Amino acid sequence: MNAPDFNAVCPLPVSEYPRVLMAHGGGGRLTHQLIENVFGKAFSNPILDTRHDSAQFCVPAGRLAMTTDSYVVHPIFFSGGNIGSMAVYGTVNDLAMSGARPLYLSCGFIIEEGLPMKSLERIVFSMRDAARRCNVQIITGDTKVVDKSEGNGLFINTSGIGVIESSVTIAPRNVQPGDVVLVNGDLGRHGMAIMAIREGLQFDSAIESDSAPIHEPVLQLIAAGIEIHCLRDLTRGGLAAALNEIAEAAGIKISVEEKSIPVREDIHAACEMLGLDPLHVANEGRFVAFVPSKNAKEALKIMRQHPVSVGSIMIGSVSETSTPMVTLKSTIGATRILDMPSGEQLPRIC
Amino acid sequence: MNAPDFNAVCPLPVSEYPRVLMAHGGGGRLTHQLIENVFGKAFSNPILDTRHDSAQFCVPAGRLAMTTDSYVVHPIFFSGGNIGSMAVYGTVNDLAMSGARPLYLSCGFIIEEGLPMKSLERIVFSMRDAARRCNVQIITGDTKVVDKSEGNGLFINTSGIGVIESSVTIAPRNVQPGDVVLVNGDLGRHGMAIMAIREGLQFDSAIESDSAPIHEPVLQLIAAGIEIHCLRDLTRGGLAAALNEIAEAAGIKISVEEKSIPVREDIHAACEMLGLDPLHVANEGRFVAFVPSKNAKEALKIMRQHPVSVGSIMIGSVSETSTPMVTLKSTIGATRILDMPSGEQLPRIC
Fold first, then answer.
1. Strand, helix or coil at B31?
2. What pLDDT digit, counting tens, does each position of A174-224 carry?
3. Would you call B150 and A152 a contact, using CB atoms and an 8 Å cutoff?
4. Is the ipTM beyond the 0.90 threshold?
């Protein structure tokens, strides 16, 4: 962040500009005005407010986690969220998947010229609310404006820092035969919420994205001493991609049962209409946890105490194999390979 | 980063895809192939190679700095660099401006469908070389692909973490009457290198961007015990924006002398042709340092030992004022206010 002064003279209120101009990204007075009046006001905290080239903070000695994600979801507003809240939750969730307590976020905005200022403000204020909900601070940022195209209006990068307070190592390679697979709720809603808007589909009730932070149940599992072997959020590529990656990394076989995997009726119907497999569809508030079977019951009990994982359930188990694979036992009893999604099903879903 | 397995099966070499497809951002097999065969190979290091949702590293107790920047420069290749090397140096430089030793970077790629794979590879390999030059590691990343437009081909976000090893506080508010202003070399080359391509200008010799890492002279100034009050890199908005921001933040007057400010003849000529002020033009390897006048001579001596700041020179001084301002004494002896650039001079310069 190239640091403008918090008290810089801002002769015109942002409201005089109904849309974002190229000059808002030029590094001059309009950039400073935008930073002070929109980002600075929404995200204000002692670290951000120093307006340095870098944000500064103190840490105790130990393990930190760092992650980054760029969000290009199209459209930028959808049922159950928007690109801003999603950018905060998504990066918080990536930190949580390493067992880290999320602390600080950076955010980089790439804005398309002509984006309504009101849309930008609405997104920024949802980021503020999302950050408060997750108890993280947005401590540094950057703003660029690019030429008007047929594009999205806005891309957001969020990078995050968290602290790993336990000595547990949570990693795909730690998954072992005898582990069970837990998932924290129904699948496919985020992807289908986006597709429903894009394809103009009408349903009896709106499909809401599951976009939500999942760090709280994870931190509580760790605090309770559950021996978590691996965690993975079920974003692009859905459950199928996540399980295949883990099977490869650990050199094991994962067997899941279709009848245990929670997918809502309307999501099933929408997927069928579009020729999609709900197990390939992206989620933004769902994760799998691999734990030893002896811990399954207690882990599910803990997860179900949190609204975001009230629908937690065991969907499968891990066994030895000479060839890593994921199998799915269908509702009619047949078993098939659950493959990695190969091509592009759902572009710009996150 | 949604972590694909390092050993995931990649049935087709990346070279079978001459251009980036939407599917390279879909989270399926093509995404993993791109990550393994391009990013994973170029950036390989023990932290990245674990392919976690987050990167993990250990730190001693103390002060860290974090920064983020998105790069949207157009065109993506230019004389003296490209968007990739610039993204590494720019974030390294932002960390250095807080007196931090740069350690780790994340990088988020937003690729336009249709970008030649060779261009992407060339950029990724310059990022690798730039990271080596700065002794930083790229430890986590993210890849998205967006629809083809008339755009840039590629946006890159780099976020960075550095460690602040001294107890010095380097900040605009610390600038004091009696300080002098040092700059590490000639101004305006990055902006004019980009504009020359865009406007199709021909010069006797190519204008090369000054894009370069500036952390080494900074860390050496700190190690030598120079009492640095403030550092600022002269990117968007150039020298004029940087000095105005600092004058406002510190509530002081900064007086600079035009005849001391190094600007090459060809840059002057190019600026005149395009109606630009070289003091408003972006640089990517230039910074100002505010130090007490008693330290000026030693500071310049240290700075001049590094190739990136061999042309270091004193350009002005700081005095008390009731109204913060920046004044420029011109070569003919007249003094005028050097104002903050107001509008958009040079869109997408970084």
1. helix
2. 999 999 999 999 999 999 999 989 888 777 778 999 999 999 999 999 999
3. no
4. yes
